[in-house]
């Protein structure tokens, strides 16, 4: 059974960093374009970043461009989101998923940025 597991969230002060990890059981992430998404309280889920596999193409939402970096480790079958210079508006639950054809959503990992 396919299951996505996000980890690495936490509470940090503005300007801090976190590295999120995305792993899966029942599927090998290496073969799919994977995206990171987030949902803040009272808001709809939004796309944060994605990474294709054919050419390593990456994209970022304007709000995180220059601060977040998506990467993948095909040996470990994992996808990461390095988040630097975090801002309070980055506070949300972060999810990873198949970018083109989303699978069932995982539990996500909470990121809280507050002083």
Describe the fold and architecture:
0% of the residues lie in helices and 48% in strands. The protein is an all-beta fold and 115 residues long. The strands form two sheets. The chain has a six-stranded mixed beta sheet, with no helix packed on it. It has a four-stranded antiparallel beta sheet with strand order 1-3-8-7, with no helix packed on it.
Summed up, what is this model?
By secondary structure, the chain is mostly beta strands.
Topology:
Elements lengths: L2 E5 L2 E3 L5 E8 L8 E6 L6 E6 L6 E3 L7 E6 L4 E6 L8 E7 L10 E5 L2
Parallel strand pairs: 2-10
Antiparallel strand pairs: 1-3, 3-8, 4-5, 4-9, 5-6, 7-8, 9-10
């Amino acid at each position: 059974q396919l299951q996505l597991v996000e980890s690495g969230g936490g509470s940090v002060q503005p300007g801090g960093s976190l590295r999120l990890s995305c792993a899966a059981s029942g599927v090998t992430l290496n073969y799919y374009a994977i995206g990171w998404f987030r949902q803040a309280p009272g808001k709809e889920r939004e796309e944060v970043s994605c990474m294709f596999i054919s050419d390593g193409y990456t994209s970022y939402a304007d709000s995180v461009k220059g601060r977040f970096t998506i990467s993948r480790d095909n040996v470990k079958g994992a996808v990461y989101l390095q988040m630097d210079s975090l801002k309070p508006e980055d506070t949300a639950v972060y999810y990873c998923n198949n970018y083109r054809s989303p699978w069932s959503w995982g539990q996500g990992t909470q990121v809280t940025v507050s002083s």
